Amino acid sequence: MHPLQFDNRFVQELPGDPITTLNSRQVVGALWSKAPPTPVQAPRLLSYSPEVAELLGWTAEDMHSSEAAQILSGNQLLEGMFPVATCYGGHQFGNWAGQLGDGRAISLGESINAKGERWELQLKGAGKTPYSRHADGRAVLRSSVREYLCSEAMYHLGIPTTRALSLVATGDGVLRDMFYDGHPKTEPGAIVCRVAPSFIRFGHFELPAARGDVALLNQLIDFTIERDYPQLIGHTETKRAQWFELICLRTARLMADWMRVGFVHGVMNTDNMSILGLTIDYGPYGWLEDYNPLWTPNTTDAQGLRYSYAQQPYIAHWNLAQLANALATVMPDEPLEAGLRTYALTYNQVFNQALAAKLGLKQLGAEDESWVEQLFELLRTSEVDMTLFFRELAQLDLQQPNLSVISSAFYRPEYVERDRDIWDAWLALYAQRSLQELVNMTERKERMNAVNPRFVLRNYLAQEAIDLAEQGDNSRIDQLLQVLRKPYAEQPEFNQFAQKRPEWARVRAGCSMLSCSS
Ligand code: AMP
Ligand code: MG
After folding, report:
1. Is 271 an annotated catalytic residue?
2. Is 429 a domain residue?
3. CB of 124 closer than 6 angstroms to any ligand 1 atom
4. Counted domains in the chain
5. pLDDT above 90 (res 506)
6. Is 136 in the pocket of ligand 1 (CB under 6 A)?
7. Is there an atom of ligand 1 within 6 Å of 272 CB?
8. Above 90 in pLDDT, residue 517?
9. What is the distance in A from the centroid of ligand 1 to the CA of 177?
10. C-beta of 103 in contact with ligand 1 (< 6 A)
11. Looking at ligand 1, which residue's alpha carbon is closest to its atom 14?
């Protein structure tokens, strides 16, 4: 393996835990604890992302070396790596949960690539840390495949996210009770190596604030601004105000992106919110199939629906308010309130723009509200696949709009007939509105296809790849990775991956319901 250059600022500049054992404990006055990975039996590289390897300066030869599997499973460390778990808290499902921390994520170090970019490497599932509490610090193959594929799919959709370098099978079994119903099973274990400029979460700030550790909180804020927001300059107070504003701005853009493509994170706890506005912690996430604003893939949330699709922009605002509460112990209220206002304004503006683009329009005004609202109501009541619908809408003949262009996106053929009249009326209205803008049909289609993906990691596609991988066949993982590299392109050779959910997947675990057990 080519050596990497490490500059581990988080551990060099922020206080660490003086205790070095892996016993579960409360860690006070420190932001990280030493956490050497626990070796695994027989690590084997199942897949890797060539783009992420390249970011780090690793070649295909490096990645296929036997050393790679050893390093990416945590069995071996490269020179300059210093494995730690970080300390954070968080609000889970609306309640303050106290200390959480990296229970199964181990940061190996912050590498600096040839361009001078900082890319932190983190293993997920590499064994216990002082924050593992009663859990084992491991991850199963199914959840690792999901995190690995979706991180890269999200990146190629143009949506901010942590990246995934590699997927390694550990050769060890991991005991999991998938639906917490008293039926634990041994599953194959795996480790994903995640890569991001920073893994700092809202919860990193909330914990010292909740403990009244003002010195630690100040130290972390200054560190984060310096390392992760180096573009900010000026006096401390100015910088902090601008910093919070930027966090709100980025989070707003992220929410607009998720809503545009129908992504549902599933566990938007404040410990799963990135300070850089990245999508982070892929657990029981999912993609909307038939358009249902109340849908959540997370069975743990089936009752409350707190993290369902339509709630996400509101929850992000709530999470930012929790971050603001934490920061308010060391910052004036005014810039925090301003940041939260920026969030709402930005979200509305960016989402509105995205929606206009999805519909092939330059912009949407107040006069468009009612027909847009009616569209989403129709998508819901007619059970129409969101992704396919917007893609097919680009094909509509605006002179002679016809429901047949989009009817293949309906989940129930009988609803095409049932709702035909109302759809015909809507399409006529929509075509008329579209023709009010001077449109070149080719340009219109290109514009729409640039924001309406043809390929997303549908829940059943991920599950099929997992089923095969559990039988020892990893080819589908690489195939999906390839398709999802160009989600907005037509790629007719991959039609099979642009199909609506098959009937068998409607109720199958892993496709329609997921738990946090991973
Ligand atoms: P999550 O819901 O995945 O964001 O996890 C919430 C908290 O539980 C975090 O502190 C995780 O590190 C921890 N956690 C989740 N799964 C495990 C596991 N298998 N072993 C140790 N800690 C875990
Ligand atoms: Mg988490």
Report:
1. yes
2. yes
3. no
4. 3
5. no
6. yes
7. yes
8. no
9. 14
10. yes
11. 103
**Which among 17, 102, 228, 271 is annotated as catalytic?**
271
* Same-domain status, 118 and 194: yes
- Confidence label for 181 from pLDDT (cuts 50, 70 and 90): confident
User: What is the average pLDDT across 448-454?
Assistant: 98
CA-CA distance, 361 to 398, in Å (whole number)?
13
Q: How far is the CA of 100 from the centre of ligand 2 (A)?
A: 9
Quick one: 61 and 13 in the same domain?
A: yes
**How far is residue 50's CA from residue 64's CA, in Å, rounded to a whole number?**
11
pTM more than 0.90:
yes
Same domain, 91 and 31: yes
Which amino acid is located at 310 in the chain?
Answer: A
Distance CA 83, CA 300 (A): 32
DSSP class of residue 180 equals S
Domain that includes residue 434, residue range: 366-438
Strand bridging mode 163-176 / 118-124: unpaired
Asked whether 516 lines ligand 1 (CB < 6 A), one says yes
Model pLDDT, residue 170: 98
Nearest CA to ligand 1 atom 7: 100
Q: For the chain, what percent of residues have pLDDT higher than 70?
A: 100
**Cα 203 to middle of ligand 1, angstroms:** 13
Say if residue 70 is in the same domain as residue 128.
yes
Residue 139 CA: nearest ligand 1 atom is 19
pLDDT in tens, 352-362: 999 999 999 99
Q: How far is the CA of 105 from the centre of ligand 1 (A)?
A: 8
The mean pLDDT of 461-482, rounded to a whole number, is 97
Supply 249's token pair: 């701005």
pLDDT digits (tens, 9 = 90+) for 243-256: 999 999 999 999 99
Co-location of 20 and 71 in the same domain: yes
Residue 130 beta carbon below 6 angstroms from any ligand 1 atom:
no
Cα–Cα dist 208/202, whole Å = 11
CB neighbour list of residue 147: distance below 8 Å, 6 or more residues apart: 124, 164, 192, 194, 282, 283
Contacts of 230 (CB under 8 A, 6+ apart): none
Kindly state whether residue 332 falls inside one of the protein's structural domains. no
* 94 within some domain: yes
Compute, in angstroms, the gap from residue 119 CA to the centroid of ligand 2: 19
474 and 430 in one domain? no
Does 37 share its domain with 114?
yes
113-138: pLDDT as tens digits: 999 999 999 999 999 999 999 999 99
* pLDDT, average across residues 424-433: 98
Instruction: Tell me whether residue 395 is in a domain.
Output: yes
Mean pLDDT in residue range 354-381: 97
